[in-house]
């Protein structure tokens, strides 16, 4: 055994970091009627061995933003029965792959993607049926909202997220597609803006959505730097990467 770097050091680091994040979540203020938000640990760029350590620490929900990487980790760790959340921009031609492992997609932002996910779910159910296996649960869909206002949004349109005005049409499409369940809304606080303001806006949009779709009450918001602001505005799902895993390697 190498006494200079013990094999348990990464496990110790992850345990301590996870513990601190869990304490922050428990201490964060939240609306009077809100339950403590769920923690999704974003494991992108980190190896399956880290995910395995986290699973041993009680983590059940993990987030990934690239299909190839997520599919490989999910396959390797399939005995752990984790819940995989797809949180990155998703090309329609990846839908078929994503529905094989993901329980949720947080980045549904256009009608063509809703169509692709619906088709992929139908094909997946046929595949499972053909193999004599039980059907999978509906895919939980969060509509990703672009919270930037007009000038910034127009200058850089390719970042993912639907304009607030497009949400009713998207919600309707998800709600009427077999195999898809409308879960709620997702957003990233705009860079350089006030996260509290952004999440307050998101909560308003969520209330509007729930007027037409009462069960779509989830709000996926909050990352390492702004989880307290998200919790304060009623986030139900926090997506936390670097404060649990450490700084990401800056490749890719
Ligand atoms: C990477 C990522 C996160 C996690 O960000 P951290 O700042 O590392 O906590 C959350 N949401 C999305 C959409 C991401 O891509």
Topology diagram in text:
Elements: H1 9-27, E1 38-42, H2 48-56, E2 61-64, H3 67-76, E3 83-86, H4 95-98, E4 102-108, H5 111-130, E5 139-144, H6 150-155, H7 167-175, E6 180-186, H8 195-212, E7 218-220, H9 227-232, E8 237-240, H10 242-245
Parallel strand pairs: 1-2, 1-8, 2-3, 3-4, 4-5, 5-6, 6-7
Helix pairs in contact: 5-7
The chain binds pyridoxal-5'-phosphate.
Pyridoxal-5'-phosphate binds next to strand 8 and helix 10.
Protein name: Pyridoxal phosphate homeostasis protein
Family: Belongs to the pyridoxal phosphate-binding protein YggS/PROSC family.
Domain Alanine racemase N-terminal: 18-249
Describe this entry's structure for a reader:
The protein has 252 residues and is an alpha/beta fold. The chain has one domain: Alpha-Beta Barrel (TIM Barrel). The chain is 42% helix and 16% strand. It is built from ten helices and eight strands. It has an eight-stranded parallel β-sheet. Helix 5 packs parallel to helix 7. The longest helix has 20 residues. The model has no long low-confidence stretch (mean pLDDT 94). The structure holds pyridoxal-5'-phosphate. The site of pyridoxal-5'-phosphate has 14 residues, from strand 8 and helix 10.
């Amino acid at each position: 055994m190498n006494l200079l770097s013990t094999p348990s050091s990464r496990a110790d680091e992850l345990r301590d970091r996870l513990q601190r994040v869990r304490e922050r979540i428990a201490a964060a203020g939240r609306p009077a009627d809100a339950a403590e938000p769920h923690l999704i640990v974003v494991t992108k760029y980190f190896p399956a061995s880290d995910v395995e350590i986290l699973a041993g620490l009680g983590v059940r929900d993990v987030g990934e933003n690239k299909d190839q990487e997520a599919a490989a980790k999910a396959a390797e760790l399939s005995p752990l029965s984790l819940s995989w959340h797809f949180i990155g921009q998703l090309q329609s031609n990846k839908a078929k792959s994503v529905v094989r492992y993901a329980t949720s997609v947080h980045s549904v932002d256009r009608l063509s993607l809703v169509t692709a996910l619906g088709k992929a779910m139908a094909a997946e159910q046929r595949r499972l049926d053909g193999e004599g296996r039980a059907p999978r649960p509906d895919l939980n869909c969060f509509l990703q909202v672009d919270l930037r206002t007009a000038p910034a949004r127009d200058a850089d349109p390719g970042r993912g997220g639907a304009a607030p005005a497009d949400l009713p049409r998207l919600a309707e499409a998800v709600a009427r597609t077999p195999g898809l369940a409308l879960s709620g809304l997702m957003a990233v606080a705009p860079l350089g803006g006030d996260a509290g303001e952004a999440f307050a806006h998101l909560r308003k949009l969520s209330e509007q959505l729930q007027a037409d779709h009462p069960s779509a009450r989830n709000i996926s918001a909050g990352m390492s730097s702004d989880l307290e602001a998200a919790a304060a505005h009623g986030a139900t799902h926090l997506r936390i990467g670097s404060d649990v895993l450490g700084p990401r390697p800056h490749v890719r």
